[in-house]
Amino acid sequence: MNIVFSRDSQVRGMDNTMANTEKYFGQFCSLLAAYTRKTARLRDKADQLVKQLIDFANSENPELRATMRGFAEDLAKVQDYRQAQVERLETKVVNPLKLYGAQIKQTRAEIKKFKRVQNREIKQLEKLEKLRQKSPWDRQMISQAETRVQRAAMDSSRTTLQLEETVDAFQRQKLKDLQTFFSNFVTIEMVFHAKALEVYSSAFQTLEKYDLERDLQDFRAKMQGVYGHYNTQPLANTNPSPSVLQSLASQGTLQVQLCRANEDPEHPHANHGRFSLHDWVEGQSAHCVCGQGGYLMLPGHSL
Q: For residues 180 and 100, what is the distance between their CA atoms, to the nearest angstrom?
């Protein structure tokens, strides 16, 4: 009877091991699946950010446009690496953990099988004890009961040995798989972050090279041309500086609409009353006069 109790204690330990594995592996699977889904959602949000950056870049000046496009391209590369990260997490971590549930169920089925064999052994022992108490003189019945007990004990011993081998193999595989799962997880994360760091470094350099002052010059030149607001600061020279002219001339489509005081008699109505920036730069300095205090003035304008 002591052997039976010893086997029962052994089986309870195995059952607790399986229950523990089922509980924590299930939690690992759930959490890592959620981690993978959130990583995929982060990738989607970053893709939306890339799209917005490109749309914004297309509405800005050339200097900022080039910088934002370069930054968006680098950010898109990181999302390509993040996509690979999601796929690898699903393949090498989450899916194997999902399949582990089948192995746990199979091993627990072996434990239940052993419990049935053990219960038969216990029942045969109980019958033998009752028979000895009720009919101690009936040697034939007692002998038959003892034979049944021995047979049940042999079945229980054989099943116990098989169960020990099964649970031992399961435990070995569990520990090896646990090591593999989290090694894969760490490797996937390290590869992603190493690649991402490389691309983010490039993105940082792209942003560092951005020439803010040049963009401001383009912006100011555009505002002056579009709204007709001219610089009223005192000028040391009445002629515009070459840098300003070059900045203004870079806006190829910019034209200033003015009423010409005198048309060219050789080419009447050549520009239909529109004064082009190129003409102003090249040969129309006569239309610019210097007012009081050295301010730059246009015909028909007064301070």
A: 13
- Distance in angstroms (rounded) separating the CA atoms of residues 176 and 87: 22
CA pair distance 234, 243, nearest whole angstrom: 17
Beta bridge partners of 276: 255
Reported as a single tens digit per residue, the pLDDT across 180-192 is: 999 999 999 999 9
What DSSP designation does 1 have?
Answer: -
Query: What does the pLDDT look like over 232-250, one tens digit per residue?
Result: 344 334 344 443 344 334 3
Residue 216 backbone zone (phi > 0: left; psi -120 to 50: alpha; other: beta): alpha
Q: Tokens standing for 100?
A: 């582990």
The answer to whether 11 and 114 are in contact (CB under 8 A) is yes
Query: Phi, psi at residue 290, to the nearest 5°?
Result: -100, 120
Residues recorded for the chain: 303
CA 7 to chain centre: 50
CB 80 within 8 A of CB 196: no
Instruction: Name the residue with tokens 């799962």.
Output: 181
Rounded CA separation 154/118 (Å): 10
End-to-end CA distance of the chain: 117
Listed residue (83, 81, 48, 55) closest to 69, CA to CA: 55
Entry pTM: 0.62
CATH number, span 26-208: 1.20.1270.60
For the stretch 174-180, contacts whose Cβ atoms lie closer than 8 Å and that sit 24 or more positions apart, written own/partner, are 174/21, 174/25, 177/96, 177/100, 180/96
